[in-house]
Amino acid sequence: xxxxxxxxxxxxxxxxxxxxxxxxxxxxxxxxxxxxxxxxxxxxxxxxxxxxxxxxxxxxxxxxxxxxxxxxxxxxxxxxxxxxxxxxxxxxxxxxxxxxxxxxxxxxxxxxxx
Length: 114
Prior knowledge:
Helix content is about 85%, strand content about 0%. The protein is mostly helical and about 110 residues long. It has one domain (about 30-114). Helix 2 (about 15-40) runs antiparallel to helix 4 (about 75-114) and helix 3 (about 50-70) crosses helix 4. The longest helix is centred in the C-terminal third of the chain and has 41 residues, at about 75-114. It is extended. The relative contact order is 0.10. The model has no long low-confidence stretch (mean pLDDT about 85).
């Protein structure tokens, strides 16, 4: 969906902002569900939600740091891209879409007056 939205944006088709926002939101939602199921849910049997989140984030960080500590730089870069940079990129896309939409709405009355 993100690729289709990017192509639609390149050719100035209608609805590309909605498509990109939906694709980024869906990615972040599925990433969050996956994180909760794989890293947090099993710890809820032994601890509170906040403690389980703290342990999950610590475990997640060590997962990302481990290949670098073993000298496997390319594995570390690939894992960091998939597990950390892609969700960050989706957040950036959502922020850019939100701010560009505000700018377009703010510029619309000026364009109507001209």
